[in-house]
């Protein structure tokens, strides 16, 4: 399916820059003292700017045991010591499974990070005057988010009893500035069904959207396919897979790698990548130390 680039710029996507900016921004002293994961306070002698990124499907706050426990996931996310984190399966006042809470906002406050939330679904409130019930993806960042968009890609709705592939939101993009360098960060959650047809269309949409941007690019997400899957092959024309050398799903005795940190070739180097052991979700995270080149 061929789609025009469609996106929305809505206030909720830039919580850090609007309603929650003052709350989420690190104190000046802490920000000035922040060091990269490599321990270097700034650049690396012309070799690039260090940035630690991660992707994590948080399973709506529930662990491998099916128990909702945001404290457990907060501890896991803190342990990653990442500068930028892409999250999937994020509830925002969605339902009882996550206690009707705003998981993106709560995690941002707890981690003292900026946040951008991009809903896939945004439903009418359960009660008049209440918040909308939303589910989607999010980006947490220690660096200021200077812009955000929620792009539409092809989806097969889980809310429609008779779905057909159609454009729908939930492909999040933010621009963060790393020591003055604009970096595009995208977060996605591709279709989970065994038939790869929808993922084929989603990959085409992803490449089209990303091609409109310049500079260093980072794509984070749950691709619901392994690296050698044919439907993912077009991504590897422009992107490099930060291969952590370990599977990510399921979290208990994982057997396949479907969670990815990918970066634009020739603009970003991968120093190392790894998969921490954890049962705080039904997926394991992927973490990568990167070097950005302007």
From TrEMBL:
Gene3D superfamilies: Endonuclease/exonuclease/phosphatase. InterPro entries: Endo/exonu/phosph_ase_sf (IPR036691), Endo/exonuclease/phosphatase (IPR005135), GPI-anchor_lipid_remodeler (IPR051916). The keyword Electron transport does not apply. GO terms for molecular function: endonuclease activity. Keywords: Endonuclease, Hydrolase, Nuclease, Signal. Residues 1-30 form the signal peptide. Residues 54-283 form the Endonuclease/exonuclease/phosphatase domain. It holds the Pfam family Exo_endo_phos. This is Endonuclease/exonuclease/phosphatase family protein. It comes from Streptomyces rubiginosohelvolus.
């Amino acid at each position: 399916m061929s789609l025009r680039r469609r996106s929305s710029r809505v206030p909720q996507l830039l919580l850090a820059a609007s309603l929650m900016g003052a709350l989420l921004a690190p104190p000046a002293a802490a920000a000035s003292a922040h060091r990269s994961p490599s321990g270097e306070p700034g650049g690396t002698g012309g070799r690039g700017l260090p940035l630690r990124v991660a992707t994590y499907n948080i399973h709506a706050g529930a662990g491998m045991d099916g128990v909702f426990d945001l404290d457990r996931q907060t501890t896991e996310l803190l342990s990653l010591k990442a500068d930028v984190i892409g999250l999937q399966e994020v509830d925002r006042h969605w339902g009882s499974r996550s206690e009707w809470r705003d998981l993106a906002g709560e995690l941002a406050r707890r981690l003292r990070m900026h946040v951008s939330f991009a809903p896939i679904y945004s439903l009418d409130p359960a009660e008049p005057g209440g918040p909308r019930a939303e589910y989607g993806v999010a980006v947490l960042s220690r660096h200021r988010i200077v812009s955000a968009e929620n792009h539409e890609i092809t989806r097969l709705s889980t809310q429609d009893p008779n779905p057909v592939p159609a454009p729908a939101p939930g492909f999040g993009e933010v621009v963060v500035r790393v020591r003055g360098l604009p970096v595009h960060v995208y977060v996605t959650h591709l279709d989970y069904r065994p038939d790869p047809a929808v993922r084929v269309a989603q990959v085409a949409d992803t490449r089209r959207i990303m091609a409109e941007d310049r500079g260093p690019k980072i794509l984070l997400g749950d691709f619901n396919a392994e690296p050698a899957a044919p439907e993912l092959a077009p991504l590897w024309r422009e992107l490099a897979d930060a291969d952590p050398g370990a599977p990510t799903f399921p979290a208990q005795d994982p057997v396949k790698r479907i969670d990815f940190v990918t970066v634009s070739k020739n603009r970003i180097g991968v120093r190392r990548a790894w998969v921490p052991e954890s049962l705080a979700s039904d997926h394991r995270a992927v973490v990568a130390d990167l070097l950005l080149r302007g």
